[in-house]
Specification:
alpha/beta, 12% strand, elongated, four-stranded parallel beta sheet, 4 helices
Amino acid sequence: VVAICPLTATTTAMFNQDVFKMMKNDAIFINVGRGGLCDQNALIKALKSGEILAAGLDVTDPEPLPSDSELHKLENCTVLPHIGSSTKAARSRMFDMAIDNMLRVLNDLPVK
């Protein structure tokens, strides 16, 4: 199950205890959308109890995830530092936008 939707009033904590209980016990939950999509306490419980097999998180709430979070201690959970957009092309575009905006500020132009 891959969570890739935006965080809205409707999607906040949409992956909760009830949803994890409906998943097969060999399910792998991956969140690359927003940290708030997942009730992390429910996820921890599901991972510890074997309700789901594993989780991979590119996003958490809060972000960054505190170093003492239970999610870091679980062998069946991999937490990444929100690097899903870290492609060379994306980083190059971000760099170009930053330079462009710095030049705009220096020339009293609106920032994009």
